[in-house]
Automatic annotation (TrEMBL):
Domain Thioester reductase (TE) positions: 18-219
Function: Catalyzes the reduction of fatty acyl-CoA to fatty alcohols.
Stored PANTHER family: FATTY ACYL-COA REDUCTASE CG5065-RELATED (PTHR11011:SF116), MALE STERILITY PROTEIN 2-RELATED (PTHR11011)
Family according to the record: Belongs to the fatty acyl-CoA reductase family.
Protein's name in the database: Fatty acyl-CoA reductase
Family matches, as InterPro entries: FAR (IPR026055), FAR_NAD-bd (IPR013120), NAD(P)-bd_dom_sf (IPR036291)
Gene Ontology molecular function: alcohol-forming long-chain fatty acyl-CoA reductase activity; alcohol-forming very long-chain fatty acyl-CoA reductase activity
Enzymatic reactions: a long-chain fatty acyl-CoA + 2 NADPH + 2 H(+) = a long-chain primary fatty alcohol + 2 NADP(+) + CoA
One Pfam family here: NAD_binding_4
SUPFAM superfamilies found in the cross-reference section: NAD(P)-binding Rossmann-fold domains
Entry keywords, A to Z: Lipid biosynthesis, Lipid metabolism, NADP, Oxidoreductase
């Protein structure tokens, strides 16, 4: 029986998709993959155009982050494997062009979904659309990927704050995530804010609530 491959061997020759690569944890993951998995074939990162700055320009800005300095000193062409794709997780098909969709469907075998809105002051509708609906869109798209072996979703330790003791398992939320997503897609922000206290329960903000719903969506 052949030995179980290590992490670098597992990723050798693979194409990977990362959402949220420009965020804090996304940067850490991207640096780790580039530094520790030298034979990874390609890393697609989903990047939305922001304040008129195109995804390619945002990638150039990302490369200048101090985290990547040791990597680029040792491997100046490390980012040649990184391909920015314009999109947004809460859009159908993650907002990808037809050509980019096909590239992902045909080539990717591992997806890391880290994208999230971390604004604790955000309205309920915005948090659910960005985090819960966004996760649902990613799940729907991943179902189309031909060679998918792993989908890794990152949550937060605070999303199950209604529980006194946390075990290593998923938890069913008090409210149906699909019902909440449907309401947020149909009703305006003002109407959702009226419903906010009854929906959130003991959650301190809409961020933790939306992430708890997202966990339930992934667990399905």
């Amino acid at each position: 029986m052949s030995p179980t491959p290590g992490i670098p061997e597992y990723f050798a020759g693979r194409d990977v998709l990362v959402t949220g690569a420009t965020g804090f944890m996304g940067k850490v993951l991207l640096e780790k993959l580039l530094r520790c998995c030298p034979d990874i074939r390609r890393i697609y990162i989903l990047v939305r155009a922001k304040k008129g700055v195109a995804p390619g320009a945002r990638l150039e800005t990302l490369k200048k982050v101090v985290l990547f300095e040791p990597l680029l000193k040792a491997q100046p062409d490390a980012f040649a494997k990184v391909v920015p794709l314009e999109g947004q997780v809460n859009d159908p098909c993650m907002g990808l062009s037809e050509a980019d969709q096909q590239r992902i469907v045909d080539n990717v075998s591992v997806v890391f979904h880290l994208a999230a809105s971390l604004d604790w002051r955000a309205a309920l509708k915005r948090s659910v659309l960005d985090n819960t609906v966004g996760t649902q869109r990613v799940m729907e798209f991943c179902a189309r990927i031909k060679k998918l072996e792993s989908l890794v979703y990152t949550s937060t330790a605070f999303c199950q704050c209604e529980e006194d003791v946390l075990e290593e398992r998923t938890y069913k939320p008090r409210v149906d995530p699909h019902m909440v997503m449907e309401l947020c897609q149909k009703l305006d922000e003002e109407a959702m804010e009226i419903m906010r206290p009854s929906l959130l329960g003991r959650h301190p903000n809409c961020y933790t609530f939306s992430k708890a719903l997202s966990e339930a969506v992934v667990a399905e």
